[in-house]
Specification:
By secondary structure, the protein is an alpha/beta fold. It is 34% helix and 25% strand.
């Protein structure tokens, strides 16, 4: 068994537990390979918009269990709410042991002011009538993910490379409305105005790390991507950020089982307080 990588900070977002597109087993493998001092869940970990009582498999529950286990074993877990799990926002500032719910997070990393938030505040499609259309679109997107999986199964059988048609379609639509570009520029400009040196978002499912500058200053804009198509996270170590991307070959023969006693241990701790 490989030794866990010790990291000061890991940020991940847009897991969308409870949907067909979520790569829960891959995320669990990644989580079991790291030992972060702080884990920031930057929104849309659950997909309450598209939640179905008929679909929440064991692999999705195992991710939740393991995150609780990490918290129980000393990792500080900060859950920042997004638009797909916005129902949790009424519980913002809830703290239990090493677990905390928040709307945003401000940190100082080696002297550099850091602003972490999901980013849906910049997206008009998460509000009002557009929000209803987005929810309906989410159902179609889930179907597209299933069709894409079936096509890739045949491609692998024929010895061909997998393709993400869902990602191609989604990217083309967002380019049509200049969504991603506007999102990144808006987040960066506000961060510059507020004198931050790092700004970290999720929401748009596009992993990114780049410097943005204007006449008022500069900032490093980062996006943690997602665990639906890109399978990425942000890792901060030795005063540097990097975008981590899951590779299946790194986790061959890894056990993805979760100790069932984990939840009982946590419950007992709560009851003993």
């Amino acid at each position: 068994m490989k030794k866990k990588r010790k990291l000061p900070l890991v940020v991940l977002s847009d897991v969308h537990l409870g949907t067909y597109g979520c790569h829960a087993n891959e995320l669990l493998s990644y989580l079991k390979s790291i030992q972060p001092e702080m884990l920031v869940l930057n929104g849309d970990i659950f997909d309450i918009w598209n939640f179905s009582k008929s679909y929440f498999p064991a692999s999705h529950m195992n991710v939740l269990r393991y995150i609780l286990k990490m918290s129980n074993q000393g990792t500080k877990v900060i859950y920042i709410t997004g638009n797909h799990d916005e129902a949790l926002r009424k519980y913002s500032d809830f703290v239990l042991g090493n677990f905390e719910l928040a709307d945003k997070l401000i940190l100082e990393l080696d002297g550099k002011k850091t602003w972490i938030f999901h980013g849906d505040v910049f997206d008009s499609s998460t509000k009002g009538y557009a929000k209803i259309l987005a929810k309906l679109g989410g159902k179609g997107y889930d179907l597209l993910i299933l069709i894409n999986s079936l096509i890739n199964w045949f491609l692998v059988l024929m010895g061909k490379e997998k393709r993400s048609y869902s990602k191609m379609i989604k990217d083309s639509v967002k380019k049509a409305v200049a969504f991603v570009s506007n999102f990144e520029i808006t987040a960066a400009e506000i961060a510059i105005e507020k004198k931050f040196e790092y700004v970290i978002c999720g929401h748009i499912h596009k992993p990114q790390m780049k410097e943005v500058s204007n006449e008022h200053g500069k900032v490093i804009y980062l996006n943690s991507g997602d665990w639906v198509e890109n399978l990425t996270a942000l890792e901060y170590n030795k005063k540097k950020w990097r975008i981590y991307q899951y590779q299946k070959i790194d986790f061959e023969n890894q056990d993805t089982a979760v100790d069932d006693d984990t939840i009982n241990d946590i419950v007992n701790k709560i009851l003993s307080q």
